[in-house]
Structures are given as structure tokens and as C-alpha cells.
Amino acid sequence: MTVRLGDWAKALDHDVRANPAFRLRRLDALPDAYRNALRDAGLNLAGVFGVLVADRDSGLADKVVDEAAAQLFSDLHRPAPLPPDAAGRFAELVLDGVLELDSVRGFVSGPLAYEAVVEPQELSAELDRLGQLSHAAVNYAARLRLGEVGPTTGRLYFFNRVPISPRWARAFPGRGAVQDLLSGPALTRDWVAGFSVSPEP
Known about the structure:
With 201 residues, the protein is an alpha+beta fold. It has nine helices and seven strands. The model is unreliable at 1-7 and 195-201 (pLDDT under 50). It folds into two domains: 8-122, no CATH class; 167-201, no CATH class. The radius of gyration is 19 Å and the shape is globular. The strands form two sheets. A four-stranded antiparallel β-sheet has the order 5-1-6-7. It has a three-stranded antiparallel β-sheet with strand order 2-3-4.
């Protein structure tokens, strides 16, 4: 059974699963260098159970999880309804990519699941596509409740991006291909590059 994107009230009634792009590693099973890097980043490891280590080709970042999130991730190895006691973290875990929600697009998380887990708000009719996207990005970051400027800024900056795929790699095989796209008449009419792209090695 799937949930139509935007039908937020029914989202909790449908299946979610642990994102298969991650592997759960207990904190005490991680190399010392990894744990030291977490401490150097200012993270208090007292409440950390482990790390969800992302597959190298997924385009996702590793995620630190507490014991409750780690247990939920393990329990949802196969798709199932979200346990009632985890409902309060539903939006956080789906938007953060830890869990994926069953939808008409398949299992989705992150920005692709935004409309399914964030109750829609009426937007001004004057907002253009960029304005609507900006509004969605701000609401997405707000629902994550990260509490720190740095991580929140990063999520806003990367909102609506997609991981590299074989299709895009074929379409833009190198920096020169990207530069050719940015040099097209549709962009240069209203935009001036503020950087240079180095030649292909």
C-alpha cells in the first residue's frame, strides 16, 4: 500500500523502512580514528549508540544515531508501519534519510518525502517556482530540528539536490561539459560566472 505525496495525515498509516544505503555500526566497533574525528567535531559521544555508515556511491553522509533511532533502524529492516512510540520522530527520521516512506514514487526520503511528512501550508499566489522551493527548503530544515547553525545551513544549501547517477555522469562526463552548460545563452543572458573551471586533467 502506498501513500500519495502530500497526504500527510495518512503517512503514519503506511509502510516505512530503514534506508538500505546505510549500515549500522556500533560506536565501540568503530576505529579509534573515527571516534576521535567525531569528538574533534565537537560531538558529545555520551548519548551516541552508533553511526549509520552510508554506501560510498549513495551521495549520503554518515549519520550519528542514539539508541532509540538505532533500534528503530534495525527493526525496520523490512518495510512495516512505524511503531506508535516513534511517531514523534517520524518527520525527522524520514527527512534526514534514516527511514524511507512508501509512496507512489517508491520508497523516498529527504526532500523527495517533504510533502508527505510536512503538513502543507497555504502559499501566497505570488510565489514563483523559486519562491515555492525556498519555502519548502526552510520548512524542511525547520522540521529537522538540528539546533545548530552549521548543519542547518548545510541542509538548506543542499536542499533539492540529487546524488550523481550513471545518467547524469553520461550527460556531464567532466568539468568541461558543465562549463559548456553554464555558458549557454539561456544562462549568460542574466548571469555572469563568478568562478572559473579549470581544464580537464
